[in-house]
Automatic annotation (TrEMBL):
Cofactor(s) needed: Mg(2+)
Domain DAGKc: 1-135
PANTHER family xref list: LIPID KINASE YEGS, SPHINGOSINE KINASE
Signal sequence, renumbered to the chain: none
GO cellular component: plasma membrane
Protein's recorded name: Diacylglycerol kinase
Molecular function terms, GO-annotated: ATP binding; ATP-dependent diacylglycerol kinase activity; metal ion binding
Organism: Streptomyces apricus
Length: 296
């Protein structure tokens, strides 16, 4: 492995935590004997182009500093290559870092873990999901939760987490099931009325909501969580259990496992790793060992 590491930084992540986190992460890498080159980019497209150029030039690793959005962007640069990805997670959700067992909101600790892993050659391969040309590490969300994202993205006020909370209240008031057609591995077809369908490569989204609690990053399969049609009262009663993953025991919840899934439902957008994919229908494929990661 070359001794040059590329630090991929989102300075705006976590209200400026990304910029502050870059220094201790870089210090940990340099202390381990690596030279560090920082990539910022003028916008997401430019940053991704620069990260891809670093990967093509043979950088020893791409270490993303930021939140889930930055992790998602980094995946697009390293997926399917032999270049390891390190994560210094300082955003709001940090779900992919948690799934990988990396420290969150502690850039010095995360930097040390990544640096030690790279120095010792301790890297491992994990699965990724892919929809068309887009890779994702955690969850493809659709239904109620993606409608909340849609509404939140349209809101110009009040900003931050409160926007999401208000969008959720508005969607609760308009709660209705969606008629889904779910095709698993090209053969098993389920036509259901569902509140939401979540396709998990990893277990959680939204900052620790374990919607696909038993998802395994190394089994070559998605865990597909289907929440059936339910009332607002039922949804509000079951929702807190998502943080522990115990909602999977509820009679309205069904879990399937598949390597390939096709989702179709009218008026529903898909989001993966919190980023919009576009309207359903969408087809997702679990790609075994698509990502090499530096970590525990």
């Amino acid at each position: 492995m070359t001794s040059e590491i590329t630090l991929f930084v989102n300075p705006a992540a976590g209200r400026g935590r990304g910029a502050r986190a870059a220094q201790p992460a870089a210090s940990a890498l340099r202390a381990a004997g690596f030279s560090v080159r920082t990539v910022l980019g003028e916008d997401a497209r430019d940053a991704l182009a620069r990260a891809r150029s670093a990967v093509e030039a043979g950088t020893g690793a791409l270490v993303a500093v930021g939140g889930d959005g930055m992790a998602s962007l980094a995946l697009q640069a390293v997926a399917g290559t032999l270049t390891p990805l390190g994560l210094v997670a300082v955003g709001t959700g940090n779900d992919f870092a948690r799934a990988l067992g990396l420290p969150v909101r502690d850039p010095a600790a995360a930097g040390r873990v990544v640096a030690e892993s790279l120095k010792e050659g301790r890297v491992r391969d994990v699965d990724l999901g892919r929809v068309g040309g887009t890779w994702f590490g955690t969850v493809l969300a659709s239904g109620f939760d993606s409608r909340v994202n849609d509404r939140g993205n349209r809101m110009r006020w009040p900003g931050g987490r409160l926007t999401y909370d208000l969008a959720m209240l508005a969607e609760l008031a308009a709660l209705r099931p969606f008629p889904y057609r779910i095709t698993l591995d090209g053969g098993r077809v389920r036509e259901v009325e569902a509140t939401l369908v979540a396709v998990g490569n990893g277990p959680s989204y939204g900052g620790g909501m374990r919607i696909c609690a038993d998802a395994d990053l190394t089994d070559g399969l998605f865990d597909v969580t289907v929440v059936g049609a339910c009332s607002r009262t039922t949804l509000l009663r079951v929702f807190p259990r998502v943080y522990r993953g115990t909602h999977l025991d509820h009679p309205l919840v069904t879990v399937y496992r598949a390597a390939r899934i096709e989702l179709a439902a009218p008026g529903v957008t898909g989001y993966a790793d919190g980023e919009p994919l576009g309207p359903l229908p969408l087809t997702a494929q679990c790609v075994p060992g698509a990502l090499r990661v530096a970590g525990p």
